[in-house]
Write a structure and sequence with these properties.
Layout (H helix, E strand, L loop, with lengths): L7 H4 L6 E3 L3 H12 L3 E6 L4 E7 L11 H12 L1 E9 L6 E9 L2 E8 L2 H9 L3 H20 L3 H23 L7 H6 L2 H7 L6 H5 L2 H11 L3 H47 L1
Antiparallel strand pairs: 1-6, 2-3, 3-4, 4-5, 5-6
Helix pairs in contact: 2-3, 4-5, 5-6, 5-11, 6-10, 6-11, 10-11
Length: about 270
């Protein structure tokens, strides 16, 4: 089936990802999106801002009367290569282009410019500081590889990011009195995550199986299987990083508030 929000074919679907038009409603939805002046929200790489894009619709779509006849005609019109142009409503000279091949009820995205990685990069910039430059580049590479259908390669980078977060937590745990590092070194990764639960984001602790999924992807799953799973893994990584950001922001607020309270008390006593 295609995404409920058809515009996600443009903004989130990876190259060579296959979708099936599972019923008449989906045929209608895709047809109307491509041929009836639709709009969708997306980051404009030239404006460098979030914007709304308008699909440049074909004006010669058929206008049949009977319902069955109309559906058959719409599916027939969708067949073959569909080159979908759209322009930014902030600046009509800024364009996006998407290519889809439709064969029977199968829809495959075969081209896109700018790439998913290009339009996604602004949404992950907030993780640059928390990840550091090296891991931030790896996160960007993971998204870029996935957008081009390189699922296994993208999993390697996501797993490296997860491993670095676990190792940071391990470094913190080693400073705690009573920490048993020998036991830790002999544990499996999922067991290590449980041992580090006081130093890791809750989402990772509660979803420690993420590491197993990524490892299975690297060693056993096909490119197609990794590509299918990648969006869920990306969201999982982002949730883990969001928790870390929230924790640091809270700690900074507490530090500033405590400093201000101490300053006010000092003034009141003088």
């Amino acid at each position: 089936m295609i995404p409920e929000n058809v515009s996600e074919l443009m903004t989130k679907a990876q190259l060579y990802q296959s979708f099936t038009l599972s019923d008449d409603t989906e045929i209608d939805a895709l047809y109307e999106f491509l041929f009836m002046d639709s709009k969708y929200d997306c980051f404009c790489t030239e404006c460098e801002k979030d914007s709304t894009f308008r699909v440049v619709a074909s004006r010669d779509y058929p206008k049949t009367i009977g319902v069955n006849q109309m559906l058959e005609s719409r599916l027939a019109t969708l067949q073959g290569l569909q080159v979908v142009g759209s322009f930014c409503m902030r600046n009509s000279t800024h364009h996006m282009v998407h290519l889809f091949i439709v064969i029977d009820t199968s829809v495959v995205k075969v081209g896109q410019y700018p790439s998913i990685a290009d339009i996604s990069s602004p949404s992950i910039k907030k993780y640059r500081k928390i990840l550091g430059e090296e891991k931030y580049r790896e996160f960007s590479k993971a998204i870029g590889l996935a957008s081009h259908g390189v699922g296994i390669g993208s999993f390697i980078y996501l797993r490296r990011i997860l491993e670095s977060l676990i190792e940071e937590a391990h470094d913190a745990a080693k400073e705690v009195p009573g920490w048993n590092d020998e036991e830790y070194q002999q544990a499996r990764v999922t067991e290590k995550i449980v041992m580090l639960k006081e130093h890791l984001p809750t989402f990772l602790v509660e979803n420690k199986g993420m590491y197993s999924i990524l490892s299975k992807g690297v060693h056993e799953l096909s490119e197609a299987e990794c590509n299918e799973i990648f969006p869920a893994m990306q969201i999982g990584i982002e949730l883990i990083l969001d928790e870390r950001i929230e924790k640091l922001e809270k700690e900074e607020k507490i530090r500033i508030a405590s400093k201000n309270v101490a300053s006010i008390l000092g003034k009141l006593k003088s």
